[in-house]
Design a protein that fits this description.
The protein is α+β, with helices and mostly antiparallel strands. 44% of the residues lie in helices and 13% in strands. It has 2 domains: 166 residues, D-Maltodextrin-Binding Protein, domain 2, CATH 3.40.190; 215 residues, D-Maltodextrin-Binding Protein, domain 2, CATH 3.40.190. The chain is globular.
Length: 439
Amino acid sequence: MKRRFSVLVFVLVALLALTVSVSAQDSVTIRYQLWDTSQLPPYQQCADAFQAANPGITIAIEQLSWDDYWTGISTGFISGTAPDVFTNHLAKYPEFVALEQLVDIQPLVERDGVPTDIYYPGLADLWVKDGQRYGLPKDWDTVALVYNKAMVEAAGIDPASLNELTWNLEDGGTFMQTIAALTIDANGNNALSPDFDKSNVVQYGYIPDGMGGAYGQTQWSAYTASLGWTFNEGPWATSYNYDDQRFIDTIQWWADLALEYGYSPAFSDITSLGAGSLFQAGQGAMTQNGSWMIGYFLSSEFEVGFARLPAGPEGRKSMFNGLADSIWVGTQHLEESWAWVKFLASAECQNFVGASGVVFPAIPEAAAMSQQMRADAGVDVSAFVDQANEEGGTFLFPIADYAGEISTIMNEAMDAISLGQAKAADILPAANAEINDLF
């Protein structure tokens, strides 16, 4: 009897070990990378919910800083160590498509009947080339003015009036006047005074977010677009318009805010220290940035507000950008990676993100949750949302091949202009010709 019992126990233990072994073999870990630390908490919520519904799949979230992130992705493609799924950017993915490093998920979308019309209009289409789809939308962003409330009020300016600013190339409009009124020298003169000393400024009216390179998302693109200028003829176009006179004149105006007028810090200082850091250090009254930076600016030691972009001759415009999650072609777990991407793009996950308020999710209802979260905390972020909802108020991030080469060419040209080494009219036509020769 004792021997039969021992044999039975041995068999049960063996079966249990076999079950655990099979379970371990069936368990899959999906590596998921993103770069924004503020988005880690809501995406961990998404991962927890996904894992609860899919016990055999573990989501390992990895976060790297912006520069390290893209270096790691690129080297990972080569070494075979890239993450299964990663947050992708419109400026990067054309190159990844050309290198054949992204999974075309369109057959999976069609197989599983995944809707692509639940997002803000245009977002899903950004990730399609020649009928192949390389991501599903996760969020969107627009651009708005950010201002130091105390400095604006000290200048006698009604903060509400900032939502009605205008801009043009002739005299800069009321936007230029407001910048001048907020720029103060060491003697207490603002830039509207004939006694203003631009060589001894203690408070700048405006701190541009750098020169903006090839795209100027948070910099000049709102102003060039408000003149009716476009980068190219649409997604995957084969020529650019950086030689257009409207573009040339706007870029020179942008650089002259520092070079000619003294209304903003030197671009060399902005490059080395960062526009956000200079603003938070109290060096300027206004800056301009994207909706993903709302939390950053709210961490300032002074009270900030957000206002609409100035309206140009063709209206008020903001670049409309959106991130997506892509699957690396080298993943060993395609179905599990696809299941995770589907969940990231779903209302359930995007509601977690919306409730956090860190960004505006791609699904409108989730984006409304983000706005409401900020409103409940006493913060008005309608400048970003109203821009996204305004008819004709946005334009899409330009997508084309040779994005890396285009950025290199334009960065060199913009650096020369910002340092006063060249005029926009003298350097941009040649840069545009070099870009178009790529195609």
